[in-house]
Amino acid sequence: MTKTFGHGTTTDEVLEGIDLSGKRVLVTGVSAGLGVETARALKAHGAEVVGAARDLDKARKATAHISGGIELIELDLASLASVRAAADKLNAAGQQFDIVIANAGIMACPQEKTVDGFDRQFGTNHLGHFVFVNRIAGLIKDGGRLVNLTSGGHRYSDVDLDDPNFERTEYTPFAAYGRSKTANVLFAVEFDRRHRGRGVRAAAVHPGAIHTELARYMTPDVLQGLMTQIKAAQEAGIKGLEFKSIPAGAATSVWAATAPGEEVGGRYCEDCHVGQIADSPTTADGVSPYAVDPENARRLWAKSEEMVGERFS
Q: Which of 16, 122, 205, 299 is most buried, by CB atoms within 10 Å?
């Protein structure tokens, strides 16, 4: 009998009856929130888990409760030197992965630059993972899976390939966040196109609204304003804005990581199913057309290569 999953489904419900013994998984952002829960759930169901984090001490404390422990590697997505060093370390070890989950990210921070001069949200959420994942793509086994965490916040903005660093455009925290989250979807679309010939499929995942450290850059006034907007939208009948627990928030990540590749490859997923094109103002569900447009994905890939000074096959 086919299981029915939805908004409140948890990681352990998704993985019930699934044995991941012999599978090797890489999860970025294992120092808090969804990354820790994703790693815990996969490990609990038999997978060998490697966790990447900027702050290893914080990650060790955050993952100390995971039975059997996980391997940790240092990765600062806001520094291409750190990204390349982490990828080099993994490539030197030569151990392959069945699943890579690009979970780490930041949200709605003040206007800042990464050490390489990129807009901090675009540089961290997209370009850091773009370089990291592409550099270790050869370690993903044939038939493997890439899962990129995005957000319903991609609806705030399409990518702006003419001004990705807000050099001419007025900066707002959520416009920058939206650009980076759209980029996460488009990266999955193009990575899937390039690698599906060997059975490697890529999906983008919206985890939902969850109270985690992701909101740490939001001032109390901004956070209260967002909560007021959400409440007003709910009262207006707009669906899809209910908050989730962390185990429910991480559920779509593990669902997309273990679902059949032909089902999720090149797709946007939410609430443990493939999301539809968003064409209704009465729902917060679904994906904006620009975020899954193949030509937009190709252009973003080329622009990303130009920005980081590196080409990937």
A: 205
311 occurs within a structural domain: no
Give yes or no for residue 53 having a pLDDT over 60.
Answer: yes
Number of domains in the chain: 1
Q: Which residue in 156, 177, 217, 268 is the catalytic one?
A: 177
CATH of the domain at 168: 3.40.50.720
Compute the distance between CA of residue 92 and CA of residue 24 in angstroms, rounded to an integer: 16
Within a domain: 229:
yes
pLDDT above 90 covers what percent of the chain? 85
In angstroms, rounded to a whole number, what is the distance separating the alpha carbons of residues 131 and 119? Answer: 16
Q: How far apart are CA 130 and CA 308, in angstroms?
A: 9
- pLDDT at position 1 is 43
Predicted TM-score (pTM) of the model is 0.92
Query: Can you tell me whether residue 75 is helix, strand or coil?
Result: coil
Q: CA separation (Å) from 20 to 17, 24, 43, 122, 251?
A: 10, 8, 8, 33, 15
Clarify whether 177 is annotated catalytic.
yes
Residue 173 lies in a domain: yes
Out of 144-153, 193-202, 229-238, 280-289, least confident range: 229-238
What is the DSSP secondary-structure string of 204-218?
A: EEE--EE-SGGGGGS
108 neighbors 177 (Cβ within 8 angstroms) = yes
> What is the average pLDDT across 76-102?
98
Q: Is residue 3 part of a domain?
A: no
What is the pLDDT confidence band of residue 313, given thresholds at 50, 70 and 90? Answer: confident
Q: Beta partners for 270?
A: 206, 273
Radius of gyration (C-alpha) of the chain in whole angstroms? 18
Judge contact between 255 and 270, C-beta under 8 A.
no
Which domain covers residue 103, as residue numbers?
A: 11-306
Distance CA 298, CA 304 (A): 10
Taken as a whole, the chain contains a residue count of 313
State the pLDDT at residue 4: 86
Average pLDDT over residues 273-300: 89
